[in-house]
Amino acid sequence: MKNGPYIFNLVIIRIAYKCITKKNTKMKKVNSLFWMVVFLFTTSIVPGQHQGLTESQEKEHETFKRGRIAPVFAYSWVPKGDTHSGNVSGVVVAPTVGFDLEYFLTERWAIGLYVDMEIMVDEVDQGDGDFITREYPVVVAFGTTYEFVKSWNLFGAVGYEFENHESFFIGELGIEREIRIPNNWDITPTFTYTIKEGYDSWKLGVAFGKRF
């Protein structure tokens, strides 16, 4: 059944989404996201995926570039409040810079390292007057991407946010539109939703990728 792995992935994403959106502890949400990434990764290697290729497709596959590196420039929306209780008093819009480093297992699947830094110095209210200081936090995450429709990718990652005052585990989900240009370059607008301790955030950005 050619569509079996694709249908299975949709089922896993749906189950993980329900787990993440339930009123539950932050760590359980991150765990749910982690297992979604694991399931997506384990279904990425499908036997016989290159069987029945035409001669032109085989030539194209021979020149397939498995590596990709991309600087990322974005803006992160960080709420001044507890997003889980609805007690949000404002928003910090923080310029964000980083890079993606990916290895493609197939034309559609990749695993990668994702690093970014929010350029901000501010206090975030976690609710009940409990403030934490965020000063240039750096996120390091590992995850996977999947091209579910031509040039449209879904991705998920788990990692850690490092900050001088308080660091914690994070989970990320996102979608991106890859616009390929000559010489193995791409321009890729991205949307990312990040689950953190006490509050969530999201960001809009663009990556400038190079295949190698």
The CATH topology is given as Porin
Q: Strand portion, in percent?
A: over 45%
Strand order of the largest sheet: 1-2-3-6-7-8-10-11
List the total number of helices: 3
State mean pLDDT (0 to 100 scale).
78
What is the top-level CATH class? Answer: Mainly Beta
Largest sheet: 8 strands, antiparallel, barrel
The computed structural class is alpha+beta
- The tally of structural domains comes to 1
Element-by-element helix/strand order: HHHEEEEEEEEEEE
Helicity level? 10-25%
Low-confidence stretches: 41-53
CATH architecture: Beta Barrel
Distance between the termini: 33 Å
Number of strands: 11
Q: What would you report as the Rg, rounded to the nearest angstrom? A: 18 Å
Query: What is the approximate shape?
Result: elongated
Summarize this structure briefly.
The protein is α+β, with helices and mostly antiparallel strands.
Which features characterize this protein?
elongated, two-stranded antiparallel ribbon, Porin, 3 helices, alpha+beta, single chain, 53% strand
